[in-house]
Amino acid sequence: MISRLITQNILRRPIRTVISVLAVxxxxxxxxxxxxxxxxxxxxxxxxxxxxxxxxxxxxxxxxMFLGMTSAPMPIKLxxxxxxxxxxxxxxxxxxxxxxxxxxxxxGIDMKSWDRVTxxxxxxxxxxxxxxxxxxxxxxxARQNHVRVGQTVKLLNHRFTVSxxxxxxxGSRLFIPLETAESLAEQQNRASIFFIKCTxxxxxxxxxxxxxxxxxxxxxxxxxxxxxxxxxxxxPALTDFITVLVxxxxxxGFLVIFLSMYTTIAERTREIGILKSLGATKGYIxxxxxxxxxxxxxxxxxxxxxxxxxxxxxxxxTFPTVTVELxxxxxxxxALLALGGTLIGAxxxxxxxxxxxxxxxxxxx
Length: 365
Hints:
Layout: H1 2-12, H2 14-50, E1 56-59, E2 74-75, H3 78-83, E3 88-99, E4 104-109, H4 111-118, E5 123-126, E6 134-138, H5 139-145, E7 152-155, E8 158-166, E9 174-177, H6 178-185, E10 190-191, E11 193-198, H7 204-214, E12 219-222, H8 223-230, H9 236-267, H10 269-277, H11 282-318, H12 328-354, H13 358-363
Parallel strand pairs: 4-9, 6-8
Antiparallel strand pairs: 1-11, 1-12, 2-10, 3-4, 3-11, 5-8, 6-9, 7-8
Helix pairs in contact: 1-11, 2-8, 2-9, 2-11, 2-12, 9-12, 11-12
């Protein structure tokens, strides 16, 4: 009997049903996509740093773990001292430049030392720098922006010529000569970070200890440690960011369901009066309303899942460089949050319906 009532109530109000389902779907989609985008981009960054082949990274004191958030406070001559340490095979400096017009992080690199540390790029088209305003891009960036070798690209308020397209997976997606980056940044002989390759990965801890003794206030991490930090789900800033956005999504779903069920009670006052005159208890009425809200929520969750996967495919097609990491864990969390918000949003309208006087309800026009 309850199932039939719920089905009829849902089908008789198609607009309300669609809005409620979409509200829950949007809530689920927001939670999954926000978390997926955040974790995906961080994990992608970690993998690209791991793809360099370096063992140790050195940054200035109190540098941000998010590369590109630090300017360039380190003298580039530090690289000479680092290269003289025991068990150090090669050192390469990198200068970060952030292009706000295209929201791109550009790495200024010294090609000779870069090749010694990383093993060099895998060129899919073109070749290395041949001039000060040459640019290397990875194949993902080239595909997203339809970039070809020989094409001119405007970055940092200057025109760069694409000299080569390289395989993705080594640090940044955009590379320019170190000297050019220094000139544009007006920071001569400075570096944002040093990447160090050891003679053997087994000497990593020994090299780190030597660097900390030489530069006690600097930030020194093994590449593996850095990767583990970026792939952690317990980063304070990341957790706070996700919590805020999830709270916004849950609030949206809660308010829409609350409004939907509240207006439904007003529309069905007479119907509820008939049910109570036939002997329906308060518990029966509350159960009816909450079950109806639950059905709408389950439909919204399914639509949200489908929409999220469709949204990820659209993102991949539109922005190939963006990584969206969808997990079963967060799919379940999104469903639980949506269900909890829905039931809480429907509880007060259900309680109000249960407290209606049957005589007043039957007289309601």
